[in-house]
Amino acid sequence: MKKKIGMIILAIVIILIAAILIVWFAFPSPRRTNETIGTVVAGNEVEETTENVIENIQENAQENTQANEEIQTPVEENTQAQNEVENTSSETFEESPETEEERAIAIARGDYGTTENVKFGVEGIQADGRYIVSVRDSSTTEALVYYTIDVVTGTFEKREMN
Q: Per residue in 20-49, is it b (16+ CB within 10 Å) or e — as a string?
């Protein structure tokens, strides 16, 4: 009889342990939602919580945005300074552009015509060496025209945004 009661108690304990484990794995606790993510970077193990990963992503996005704004601001100021110098000059001779970027902008200016209320800027260089130059509204920075310019041959393709 004692043996039978011992077997029943043992069976109840095993069932309770199994039930606790099922509940433990089926329903994540609030502590487990912030699990650590282990990664190996150059042989070093790095553990970060999911909240830290999200914070890092948000911080990086803000830093990238700030860096892009800092980079774009001097370019816009430089373009304004160039426009002011050219517009205030009363002499008729033009200096030849020294760099390929300046040549690309000069070609775009020559085709676009007016330089009032617009800014010219190099957006990038393609793999084949052609420059992408944009013409933007000074007040809204909306792209009006994109030029793809080959400064070696002096040819260009014009794509209007309207």
A: eeeeeeeeeeeeeeeeeeeeeeeeeeeeee
The Cα-based distances of 142 to 46, 64, 72, 125, 135 in angstroms read 43, 21, 14, 20, 9
Give the CA radius of gyration of the chain: 33
Q: Read off the pLDDT of residues 128-159 as tens digits, 9 standing for 90 and up.
A: 999 999 999 999 989 999 999 999 999 999 99
Beta bridge partners of 121: 134
**In 108-144, which positions are buried (b, 16+ CB within 10 angstroms) versus exposed (e)?**
bbeebeeeeebbbbbeeeeeeebbbbbbbeeeeeeee
Give backbone dihedrals phi and psi of 71, rounded to 5 degrees, phi first. -70, -40
* pTM of the shown model: 0.41
Sorted by where each begins, the domain ranges of the chain are: 97-162
pLDDT for res 89: 39
